[in-house]
Amino acid sequence: MTGEITVNNRWFSMLGYTRDQFQAPCVKQWEALCHPDDVVSAKLALEQHINGDAQAYDKVVRMRHARGHWCWIQSRGCLINDGAGNPTKIFVGINQDVTERYEAYHQVQLLTQSLPGVIYSYRMGPNGDHAFTYVSSRVKEFYGISPETALIDPNAIFDLILPEDIERVRDSIKSSYLALADWCCEYRIRVGGRIRWVKGVARAEALPDGYVSWYGMVVYIDREKALEQELQRLSYTDELTGLFNRRHFIGQLEQLSCHTQRYGTAFSLISIDIDHFKEVNDTYCQWPFILTHLWPIKLTHLS
């Protein structure tokens, strides 16, 4: 190859130049306009095509605009063949300014990195086949695997869900698929020996081929779950003694009553009266201490 380049006026205007500013476009001038970090990889891609290792040349490089900023230029092309079907030394291609697309992609990448969870898109077909079509880089932090691994094998993520939760997760996805409804599920994952609570939310969209795609995010909810469990504990226990309160007692009584009515089983209700409790409490003001230590003694005798 001679290194000579023939381009139309659109190529010059794409970079903010005019044809008059270039006496004879050549490879060296192209290299001078390219970003130094992109020249080597572009040359390598071209050599792979010339040597027959790649069917065509397809590369995106940064090129310096006449105003000083960098443009993302996509170059596509191939060697043309002669009448006998043998490749010549003439390379024909097209250059396209894809700066807006690349800048938008870069902004999306920055956005996904700033969000507190894993951004993903997931699809499932009528036969149950499924795959992730996009997974943000934070999947490494959450699930301990790379985005590439998740795209190749979706079960790499599902296998990390606790056995107690996996069926519930799969059922929720199936229900979302059938109803074409938004998906929301809270479940636990085990990564590196540590169990974490996560919450997944996604918007479902039907595709023409019978598939459904979900676009959503997974976030940690360990603090929310700990607070939820603490609030539940406080609602059913006495703050001073730590023993179950009247609300818990009524709830358990209602469950046992429903179980008895449904299955015909029997249960016993025992009422215990503590002698002289008022006198002891009025004298020593130690009723929380008395109840806390008396309760396990009663349970031991009853069992």
From TrEMBL:
Residues 127-174 form the PAS domain. Residues 57-110 form the PAC domain. Its EC number is 2.7.13.3. It catalyses: ATP + protein L-histidine = ADP + protein N-phospho-L-histidine. It is an enzyme of class 2 (transferase). InterPro entries: GGDEF_dom, Nucleotide_cyclase, PAC, PAS, PAS-assoc_C, PAS-like_dom_sf, PAS_fold_3, Rev_trsase/Diguanyl_cyclase. Residues 265-303 form the GGDEF domain. Pfam families: GGDEF, PAS_3. Keywords: Kinase, Phosphoprotein, Transferase. GO terms for molecular function: protein histidine kinase activity. This is histidine kinase. The lineage of its organism: Bacteria, Pseudomonadati, Pseudomonadota, Gammaproteobacteria, Pseudomonadales.
